């Protein structure tokens, strides 16, 4: 990645980074390698958890017999964790099985040389464990309260702004960038709106493809999402408690529903101007290297009169990540920039408390004090020159060719 310090010492130290430029062939090769790396992570999950369990067993066995005897249940709980991991692996294998040919327009071929498979990194394993928790948030009864706090306010605004008695809602187009496992997009489509989710991570794409296209029977599948948490358990059984999914049949959308998921980087995929009535972002805008790029894209792709609905914190995903641009703006700064673009704030709440893939039995729980807003792109735009200036002064952020985001809680 090109990375240079500013030439002018008085301008302050900053980094100017350019997008990596690869030939189409190199790009395809990197994408293929990345695809197989994530498949490997899914497949090596069991091994990774077993190593963790083995370590915990070793530690316990290193205690004196006297100490071991006062805790007769520890080893059997660890054995249970191992069993749960076996079960999770079966689900992950099913996800992988259904992912190998999931893209309509891309095939990733066979792995060049299976012996080249390297052990998965802790980083990829952490992403996989977060993805398992995302099943709770999006597709289990246990996630209902969290969905009510995060998705419901967005859905209610869409219904208020585009009520079905005044609009043909099938013609109201809603885009959900960073759609995760797709539940928010699916719920909006279920209400009859034309809804598209966009997602970039293969972890999420493989998993959402599995739930949306391969699961039918309600609560027929089981995951053990909390077995990776060895600290902050009140009861040992909290670690091994199951969740069932999907809490609804994802295939129950009416036949003529316009619902789709599109893979790729939001900024790169959505370049067509003025075609969306609504863009809804939930726990998304802080995934940007430069959040102004998202503001810019949303401004361009919204129809005049269209709305941007946002709910989320500003836990910048690239903060402190080596070799990555990370512009960490306050909400105040983002708001100022949005006003300059011409957005008009219609609803604004600066304190909406939500959780994200929360383990409700844990002794450590995070609350996000989120910002929620509805901002409209006006029908008649006031100042063309200003917009042009904004666009010229907003270069694209630097990017690695493929990334799975950082190792953040969200
Ligand atoms: C914190 S998660 C939120 C997921 C979902 N909206 C929710 O509320 O559960 C952010 C999601 O955005 C995705 N993402 C990050 N950068 C993206 C990009 N440039 N284009 C599309 N998706 C992206 C991540 O892979 C991740 O699934």
From TrEMBL:
Cite the InterPro entries for this sequence: CARME, SAM-dependent_MTases_sf
Enzyme Commission number(s) of this protein? 2.1.1.22
Positions of the region Disordered?
386-410
What is the predominant subcellular site recorded for this chain?
A: cytoplasm
Q: Which UniProt keywords apply?
A: Cytoplasm, Methyltransferase, Nucleus, S-adenosyl-L-methionine, Transferase
Q: What Pfam family does this protein match (any one)?
A: CARME
- Any GO BP annotation: methylation
Q: Where is the protein situated, by its record's location annotation?
A: Cytoplasm, Cytosol; Nucleus
Tell me a Gene Ontology molecular-function term this record carries.
carnosine N-methyltransferase activity
Extent of Basic and acidic residues compositional bias: 401-410
An annotated GO cellular component of this protein is: cytosol
What the entry lists under SUPFAM superfamilies is as follows: S-adenosyl-L-methionine-dependent methyltransferases
Which function does this protein serve?
Answer: N-methyltransferase that catalyzes the formation of anserine (beta-alanyl-N(Pi)-methyl-L-histidine) from carnosine. Anserine, a methylated derivative of carnosine (beta-alanyl-L-histidine), is an abundant constituent of vertebrate skeletal muscles. Also methylates other L-histidine-containing di- and tripeptides such as Gly-Gly-His, Gly-His and homocarnosine (GABA-His).
- Quote the protein name from its UniProt record: Carnosine N-methyltransferase
